[in-house]
Amino acid sequence: MIKRGKDVYKIFFKQRRFQSEFQKQLRLLVVITLSFTIAFTWRQTIFDISLNFVKFVTKIQNSSASSLLASLLITIVSVLLIYITAYFLKDGLENC
Hints:
Elements: H1 4-58, H2 63-88
Helix pairs in contact: 1-2
């Protein structure tokens, strides 16, 4: 014989867990979407600043070469930031 009280409790408990997880995932989706929107709007600004910096440092006036160097600069800085972030966000005792 099945105990109906426990079965009903399990159904509602699973439904609450599902709703809670759904809300977490929905919040994450909104944050990621807005983050990509922010990154997209700042993309050109960051590239222009990097391009001007490269032109100032190297005195190169060729647009293709300076654009390539600016992209390389952004890539190197981004990889360094990823590496630093990964180092400080390690799990457990690895970070000590």
